[in-house]
Amino acid sequence: MREGANFAALSVIPSFTNPNNLSIVTGRPPAVHGVAGNYFLDPATGEEVMMNDARFLRADTIMKGFADAGARVAVVTAKDKLRALLGKGLDFSTGRAIAFSAEKADQATHAANGLDGALAFVGQPLPAIYSAALSEFAFAAGVKLLASFRPDIMYLSTTDYVQHKAAPGSTAADAFYAMVDRYVGALDGAGAVVVLTADHGMNDKHLADGSPDVLYLQDVVDKLVAPGAARVILPITDPYVAHHGALGSFATLYLPPGADRAAIVAALAAQPGVEAAMEREEACARFELPPDRVGDIVVLSGRHKVLGTTAARHDLSGLAEPLRSHGGLWEQRVPMIVNRRLAGPTLEPLRNFDAFDVALNRIAR
């Protein structure tokens, strides 16, 4: 930060994990790569599904482009849900590509991931999925890969477990960022051009008594149309909901035929805690989203409010601390830190998915 560059960037909306990680590794917004959330309503089947299969990705990754050109590439993710998406199209038989997750490092094989014995390679035990150690494993793997595999380009993706549970300045948060600083220092010391950014920000989303501050949209919409006729989809939903209970600040609604979308948008916009409500066309144009993977209406809540379906559908038993979450406009501003001076002025705001462009094309030589 002292000798390089340090400025703010903007994430894509919704400010969730999958859309932003895929934007960073493709350099494109969701309208191009197709991943508009962690979870969506598949129009082909009418079923609600996780968007963590590589078949949902509509654009090649920057890593695939480099690998196809003969470069050595590496991808390490904390959670395995991202590994298949970020590693799509890599040919591990060439010996020039490696992609594995901390979560399933014990299952890594050369055929599926580009290396055998990932645990022994990294030299750390398999971390728990709900732990800061999951992110540390990804960093440690990156340092080892840089020293031995010598990738031309590498992407390390951590988990937001700590940020969901610990506010900035807390003991847990400080310990986490001290760990990050050590590994970033090792990457810098090894001579790598390092760009740090985030897939999204995070905010407190709770009341004074520590309980989540939730607007249950399904209950609201059931009163505006026939009960059960509309479907509320929460794209924050993923297999790991213990730290957020599937409560975030972005939701999309599918309405029955003939529903008065404008009237429903107006009614939702008037709800306390709603930051914005808009029809699909406006949302897709404003946030660069794929229209076939977004409902009829998009709703974003305010800085300290989250959106749910109905109280009965959310298991909040895993929330041991007051809720911190993301998804809306208040979590769009993220840091971008570079360990090199940039050539020319920084035209803000850059997007977080400009990270590889910054590393490859904007460093002062």
Word description of this protein:
- The radius of gyration is 21 Å and the shape is globular.
- Helix 7 runs parallel beside helix 9.
- The chain has helices at 17-26, 30-33, 62-68, 80-86, 110-113, 118-122, 133-148, 161-165, 171-189, 217-224, 261-269, 280-287, 355-361, and strands at 5-10, 39-42, 47-50, 73-77, 97-101, 153-157, 195-197, 203-204, 214-216, 231-233, 250-254, 274-279, 297-301, 306-308, 324-325, 333-338, 350-351.
- Helices cover 30% and strands 19% of the residues.
- It is built from 13 helices and 17 strands.
- The chain has 2 domains: 5-29 and 37-201 and 332-361, Alkaline Phosphatase, subunit A (3-Layer(aba) Sandwich), CATH 3.40.720.10; 214-325, Gyrase A, domain 2, CATH 3.30.1360.
- The model has no long low-confidence stretch (mean pLDDT 93).
- By secondary structure, the chain is of the alpha/beta class.
- A hairpin with a 4-residue loop joins strand 2 and strand 3.
- The strands form 6 sheets. It has a 4-stranded mixed sheet with strand order 7-16-1-17, covered by helices on one side. Strands 10-11-13-12 form a 4-stranded antiparallel sheet.
Average pLDDT level: 93
Please compute the radius of gyration using only Cα atoms.
21 Å
CATH superfamily of the largest domain: Alkaline Phosphatase, subunit A
**Largest sheet geometry:** 4 strands, mixed
CATH topology of the largest domain: Alkaline Phosphatase, subunit A
Structural class: alpha/beta
Tell me the overall shape.
globular
> In CATH, what is the class of the largest domain?
Alpha Beta
Q: Can you tell me the number of structural domains? A: 2
Sheet with the most strands: spatial strand order: 7-16-1-17
User: How much helix is in the residues?
Assistant: 25-40%
